[in-house]
């Protein structure tokens, strides 16, 4: 087994992580449910790659994500930072040792759990009652909470990422940044995050939590890090990732750089706009130096994008957009946890297993030497029938803006993953049918990459109960695309759609050049050129002139790698 440790930094990153772990939890539950579809019982995925086994002081076995979450203080809602499995007593804060006077404590009332979390608690109590042979355990309990009421409750009122999380976490997993509260109004640039992280000495404790998970791994394949890079958490992430690079230099880090659609709203005033441009450039330059592969996602309007042509997204709801980015992350990371067959054996359920190191080498190694990849997604993926094969590649849509379309790049490299695909008559497609369909699609395509790796799985994406109402009325119960819309329903969720086929593609291509050139141009214009208006701002963030020029060099090198001889490495 080759383990992965997951890191989630920032509020939006934890929204994505919450959906991601819900998908994993749903897979675990369906694999053990007698009446579930055989495709979930035979998924051939090694969940130990992402999870760890443990034991409470009472001797109860646990199975929890190998994950560290970093977020604002108070961002966990009604959930304890110690989780609910181990029931450890929180240590009292003893930071002030010299005060001899009277001490008073003001404690706020705990937040009330929503219907979904109440239903989880009741289910657990019922399981405990059965385990202890307690008869009539629910005789005095209130009326059973209905799934319909839960879905409606979540759709109208999700404030915290824990509001829709169905997963138990280890006490070492959830870290709140003391001194930074969830209702903070301005935490919107790299400098604030850097200052907050260094000023409160958070680094050592977060490092200890990561070390707890890394040191129990037998053979770690890498660290996958979800970062909310729209504001101060990019600075927090950079400080944390610097420590990781120092302590684990041989462990590849895959960075999923995510941005909430609401963070793209127009800046008010020129000064704020310049701060926004510089933050984007500084954040991307610094973070890219601290990972092996960076996958930026975050469309200004996910709802209006072609990636959402079969979805009903409300951009103002992080609960909605994060579900799409989490589904994409689940899909492109599936090869990391596919069970390996022998050299001559072929699995009926999976094909094309890759580990994180292999993916990094393929996309950013000697073949291309470009670490910035474009993530395309088809959600749901169309049928692989003969009629749909020609449009199959066209259904893969990018999750970032500012990229070139239909660019001819004869050195492009990509990895594609398709899982749960259907074919004519909405029948489950076999692995060989997936391979044949993709090959046929490329044969009919005007251009094809220099190298492409295909991974496939028969297991679709399961839709857990707390998934948002984001499916349009052209999506069927198993994610099939219908010829006529379902009447009387504009948006649907887990009660109507139980699973969906998906396709994702990571590509290293010159199509990403406009994305990089924009960041480089803004840094030069507002931070490096003589008399740059943003130079004092960068100084206030703690960056000297040489450091800013170094960041420009990093971005310039990225551009030059993809566009040789057209960009000087000089900053002028």
Automatic annotation (TrEMBL):
Q: Which CDD domains match?
A: misato
**Does rRNA-binding count among this protein's keywords?**
no
In terms of InterPro entries, this protein maps to: Beta-tubulin_BS (IPR013838), DML1/Misato (IPR049942), DML1/Misato_tubulin (IPR029209), Misato_II_tubulin-like (IPR019605), Tubulin/FtsZ_GTPase_sf (IPR036525)
What residue stretches are annotated with the DML1/Misato tubulin domain?
156-337
Q: Which domain of life is it from?
A: Eukaryota
Q: Does the keyword Lyase apply?
A: no
Q: Which GO terms describe its cellular component?
A: cytoskeleton; mitochondrion
Q: Where in the cell is it found?
A: Cytoplasm, Cytoskeleton; Mitochondrion
Residue span(s) of domain Misato Segment II tubulin-like:
2-121
UniProt-listed SUPFAM superfamilies: Tubulin nucleotide-binding domain-like
Which PROSITE patterns does this UniProt record tie to the protein? TUBULIN_B_AUTOREG
Q: Which UniProt keywords apply?
A: Cytoplasm, Cytoskeleton, Mitochondrion
Under Gene3D superfamilies, the record lists: Tubulin/FtsZ, GTPase domain (3.40.50.1440)
Q: Which family does it belong to?
A: Belongs to the misato family.
Protein name listed in UniProt = Protein misato homolog 1
Q: Which organism is it from?
A: Solanum stoloniferum
């Amino acid at each position: 087994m080759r383990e992965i440790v997951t890191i989630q930094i920032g509020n939006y990153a934890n929204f994505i992580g919450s959906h991601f772990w819900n998908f994993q939890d749903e897979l675990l539950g369906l694999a053990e449910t007698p009446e579930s579809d055989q495709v979930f019982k035979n998924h051939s995925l090694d969940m130990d790659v992402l999870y760890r086994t443990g034991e409470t002081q009472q001797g109860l076995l646990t199975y929890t994500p190998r994950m560290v979450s970093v977020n604002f203080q108070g961002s966990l809602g009604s959930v304890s930072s110690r989780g609910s499995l181990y029931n450890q007593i929180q240590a009292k804060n003893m930071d002030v040792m010299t005060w001899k006077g009277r001490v008073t404590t003001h404690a706020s009332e705990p937040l009330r759990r929503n219907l979904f979390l109440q239903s989880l608690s009741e289910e657990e109590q019922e399981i405990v009652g059965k385990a202890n042979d307690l008869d009539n355990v629910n005789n005095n309990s209130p009326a059973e909470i209905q799934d319909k009421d839960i879905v409606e409750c979540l759709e109208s009122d999700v404030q915290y990422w824990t509001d829709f999380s169905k997963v138990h976490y280890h006490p070492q997993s959830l870290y709140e940044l003391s001194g930074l509260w969830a209702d903070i109004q301005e935490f919107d640039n790299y400098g604030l995050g850097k200052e907050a992280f260094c000023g409160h000495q958070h680094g050592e404790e977060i490092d200890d939590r990561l070390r707890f998970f890394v040191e129990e791994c037998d053979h770690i394949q890498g660290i996958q890090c979800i970062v909310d890079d729209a504001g101060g958490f990019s600075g927090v992430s950079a400080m944390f990732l610097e420590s990781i690079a120092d302590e684990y230099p041989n462990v590849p880090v895959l960075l999923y750089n995510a941005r909430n659609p609401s963070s793209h709203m127009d800046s008010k005033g020129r000064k704020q706009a310049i701060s926004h441009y510089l933050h984007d450039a500084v954040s991307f330059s610094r973070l890219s130096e601290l990972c092996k592969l960076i996958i930026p996602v975050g469309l200004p309007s996910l709802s209006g994008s072609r990636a959402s042509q079969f979805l009903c997204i409300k951009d103002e709801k992080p609960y909605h957009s994060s579900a799409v980015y989490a589904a994409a992350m689940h899909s492109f990371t599936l090869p990391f946890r596919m069970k390996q067959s022998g050299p001559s054996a072929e699995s009926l359920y999976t094909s094309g297993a890759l580990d994180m190191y292999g993916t990094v080498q393929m996309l950013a190694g000697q073949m291309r030497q470009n670490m910035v990849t474009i993530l395309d997604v088809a959600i749901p993926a169309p049928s692989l029938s003969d009629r749909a094969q020609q449009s199959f590649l066209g259904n893969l849509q990018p999750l970032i803006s500012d990229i070139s379309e239909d660019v001819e790049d004869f050195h492009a490299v990509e990895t594609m993953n398709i899982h749960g695909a259907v074919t004519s008559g909405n029948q489950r497609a076999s692995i060989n049918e997936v391979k044949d369909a993709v090959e046929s699609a490329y044969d009919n395509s005007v251009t094809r990459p220099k190298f492409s790796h295909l991974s496939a799985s028969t297991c679709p994406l399961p839709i857990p109960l707390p998934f948002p109402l984001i499916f349009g009325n052209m999506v069927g119960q198993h994610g099939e695309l219908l010829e006529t819309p379902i009447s009387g329903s504009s948006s649907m969720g887990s009660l109507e759609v139980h699973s969906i086929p998906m396709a994702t593609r990571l590509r290293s291509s010159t199509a990403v050049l406009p994305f990089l050139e924009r960041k480089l141009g803004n840094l030069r214009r507002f931070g490096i050129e003589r008399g740059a208006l943003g130079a004092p701002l960068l100084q206030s963030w703690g960056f000297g002139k040489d450091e800013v020029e170094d960041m420009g060099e990093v971005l310039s090198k990225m551009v030059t790698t993809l566009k040789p001889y057209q960009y000087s490495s000089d900053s002028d």
